[in-house]
Amino acid sequence: MSSEHIKDMVLASSGLLVEEIGGPSVKPYQPDGIWELSTSGRGALANYVQDHGDDLYRRGMYNFIKRTVPPPVMLMFDASNRDQCEVQRVSTNTPLQALIMMNDPMVLEASRVLAERLMLKEDLIPDEKIATAFRRILCRKAEEKELDILKKYYEDEHQYYAGEPEKAKQKLDVGEYKHVEVPDLAATAALTQVITTMYNMDEAITK
Q1: Helix, strand, coil shares of the chain as percentages rounded to 5?
Q2: Which of 3, 48, 111, 117 could share a disulfide with 35, CB 3.0–4.6 Å?
């Protein structure tokens, strides 16, 4: 998938995507200091000022692009730096892409939000919550073997976070989107970790 579509997929599958069409460009999460390393230090664009609220969850095509400092996440997924016209983008596969999917605030926040929303569905057992998340992200039903692996991973993570409540809180303390009250922080943190794993499957971003 293209860089912009990867962002859209993560936001849409988690329920975070703002579907508004049109409007000004937006500045999403970005590592500190990158923007300032390549700036004259003058004018409105001297410093990176991150947007908040709904602007964080706009489609990837609305990301603000400064040609001297293009959005690093987009570049890692082969987006154009706008220096020249590109008839067709290159398509690469690098370890940095995997690191982004495992650590980018957008992916971690989407995982947390989807997990919290599924935890509110008390009529669903953990297996059903995992299956629901899988279908939202991978756009197909999980096979029995896949569900067994994810369920075992969930159980291991649940046991870990149950014994480390502070780690569970840290796991869920990501992103600016409002939290919802969940009955079991350990279970929510475990489900968050499982959902992040789904986003990291090759199938999630390679169509």
Answers
A1: 55, 0, 45
A2: 48
pLDDT in tens, 5-39: 999 999 999 999 999 999 999 999 998 888 887 77
Average predicted confidence (pLDDT) for the chain: 93
First to last CA, the chain: 6
DSSP one-letter string for 58-80: S-GGGB--BTTB--HHHHHTT--
Look at residue 170 and give its three-state secondary structure: helix
Tokens 């500190």 correspond to 32
Tell me the pTM: 0.93
In a 13 Å sphere around the CA of 117, the CA atoms on its Cβ side amount to 16
- Per-domain boundaries in the chain: 98-205
